[in-house]
Each structure stands twice: as structure tokens, then as C-alpha cells.
Predict the 3D structure of the following.
Amino acid sequence: MQLLNVGFGNTVTVERIIAVINTGSSPARKLKELAKAEGKLVDVTEGRRTRSILVMDSNHVILSSVQPDTISQRISALQPSYHLAELASAEKGGGSSVEL
């Protein structure tokens, strides 16, 4: 189990992350509102501006003040073999990668 720093000493389990999205779109704002209504919104921004939204496999939505690119780099640093295996699979055309 690897933990990913999502800002201010808060961590999440890397294996449970489904998506990391930017907050600028209307669907992202709707996702945030739905999670709040269901009681599944976790805000770890400590009052700062929300820069990324993490969607977890448990349907929880985590608001972070860390940029999505930075989170992606941190994930790649923690799991370089996972990232490389995914790229190799996509190049062969037989991967199970999902486009959002």
C-alpha cells in the first residue's frame, strides 16, 4: 500500500485513485456538488483554492490544492513500473486503459 501526499500532510492510497481531474469544468463542479450531497466529499485544501479533484474507487471525492500535473508526477514517482506497463500496453493496442 503506497500513500500519496495530496497536500498539507494529507495522504491517500494510490491504488484506490480512479481519476485526477482539473476543477475548471462544469462536470467537475457537478461531481463536487453530488459528492457533497451524498456525504462523500473530503476537503483537504485547508481553505486554499481547489486545484484538483481526486475520484476514489469508494465514490469519495477529494478536493486538493495541489495541481493535477503535480499529483500525476507524484503517482509516477511512486509507481514507475505501473506507468511504464500501462504505456507499453497502450502502444501494443491491447491495453485496458480507460479514457475519460
Remarks:
- The helical segments are 26-38, 68-78, 80-92.
